Amino acid sequence: MTEIPKIRVVAAVVVRKDGKILCARRGNAKNPCVAWKWEFPGGKIESGETPEIALARELREEMDFPVIVEEKIAEVLHAYPSCEIEMDAFLCVPETADAKFVLREHVEARWLAASELFALDWAPADLPIVEKLSA
Asked: What is the pTM of this model?
């Protein structure tokens, strides 16, 4: 029996000064469980990286979005059919008040209040973070 791969990833809960949270929607994905789902942006931790460095790098690469990574706010373990995700979520803030981003890996993005998060169709691994933020 083949063991499913374990992947360490990071997610950014980017919060603006007005309290709105960045939500990003994937397009068609290799993993059908997350295709067209909403997520907190982020990605894989590369060898030799701390989670904080990986998260800042991923947001620069995927969104050209400079952020300041603050404290870890959640740890999530989630098993998809093809892999197991170990995800650390960090509170982040844009480096500057007028910082903009470019969608390179996502098809849509929204800034929402915590009370509005449940209106979106979230990737399963991101749901525990949504629940924590909405509590």
From this structure: 0.94
